Amino acid sequence: MNKVIKVLIVITALTAGCEEIITEGGIEPTINFQEGTIEGIKTGDDTTTVLQKLGRPDWIRSGDVDGFYYEYADRRQLTQEMISVFFMNRDYNHFPGDYRVAVINVLNNYDGKSKEGIRIGTLKYIVVKKLGNPDLVQPDYNYEHYYFIRSDSLINVASFLYDENFKIKIISIFTRNN
What we know:
20% of the residues are buried. By secondary structure, the chain is α+β, with helices and mostly antiparallel strands. It is built from 3 helices and 11 strands.
């Protein structure tokens, strides 16, 4: 009996203070809309931070404006992009430039999800049920945007692109001014 009590005390001590958030299905969330992060990456992070958290990208692609993308492949289908991080130059007076994360996208077979259980493939009505009505709808592009106010007067925006079956096809996170 003493042995059982000692084991229980050790287990209690080891688990005390663990405030890990686990979503349904037992998977830790990798997307946080309130904090504006995906895989721990947030807007404003530099290239070194992204490389430390995600590793070397499978592709580096130039962007439409003064910027570039780090793209990470789906390990099950190496030709398919799964995470895309877009960097823009924050300081044009600085050479070679101060490139920071502007947008983070997840798509295709990305299997992470938010603490609300939202992930690629989630139906639109479930998103509305969990997050409420979107703050901005772009029907021409099938995008819906949700705003999460930050304490520094910026807004984290979670944007969802839906397919023809009203399932999330792309999740994007970016920051804008309030």
